[in-house]
């Protein structure tokens, strides 16, 4: 029997801990793969122009340290704030809804899925826009006050043939860029995010009927509180990979005829690794907990 469930909230600490742990390990795996590639390049002498520079010790070993730590720390921030945003926006926009038949996700209602995910993306874009505007706006203001600005602009125009704005023009251009970053960027991210997430749900609903379904094994803790106990690897990875392969077909419109193949391979491996790591880590560090209604 199909049961419609809405994710009303996400428990912040378990979600953040699991996400950061998974991507920290994925960062280590990625660093290992790149280090092996560097060892092969070094052994074959593919880049003789590097001379005596040792790729393994100069690049490979730092990658083994920086990639996992960087992925772990960045994911802590992104996952915690994204989950907090989700919980704050659910009451206003509605949460992600899933039609479940046992452990199988048989359908993802399109609008609810696309709306909240694109809204979260828009908030992140607003934050990024504010940060970039805070850096760029003073630079434009400084340029307008520099007495050398006119000479620099004239010299640049003479050398390149490109005409640069001066004085008030710089200030106006800076104001336009600031507005685009603060207002235009979030709107653009919301619109394109909504379209992309809606297409994902539409394609998934098509794939779920015909080929494969995402499998999520939930266990009720108390009331509406559930934990994600286990993610069956193969059906979940296959479903996600096929959906991204279908999205990759859109690349044909831009002349990229191989994106659907690379999407399938890449997302199958990534999703399978995430599911495997989740199943391994859940009993050790705690599973993700959600309020489902």
Describe the structure.
The protein is α+β, with helices and mostly antiparallel strands and 293 residues long. Among the domains are: 8-97, no CATH class; 112-199. The chain is built from seven helices and six strands. The protein has helices at residues 12-44, 55-93, 110-145, 149-160, 168-210, 233-248, 259-285; strands at residues 3-10, 97-101, 104-107, 217-222, 225-230, 289-292. A six-stranded antiparallel sheet has the order 3-2-1-6-5-4, with helices on both faces. The two termini are 16 Å apart.
Write the layout of secondary structure elements.
Elements: E1 3-10, H1 12-44, H2 55-93, E2 97-101, E3 104-107, H3 110-145, H4 149-160, H5 168-210, E4 217-222, E5 225-230, H6 233-248, H7 259-285, E6 289-292
Antiparallel strand pairs: 1-2, 1-6, 2-3, 4-5, 5-6
Helix pairs in contact: 1-2, 1-7, 2-3, 3-5, 5-6, 6-7
Keywords, separated by commas or semicolons:
293 residues, alpha+beta, six-stranded antiparallel β-sheet, 7 helices
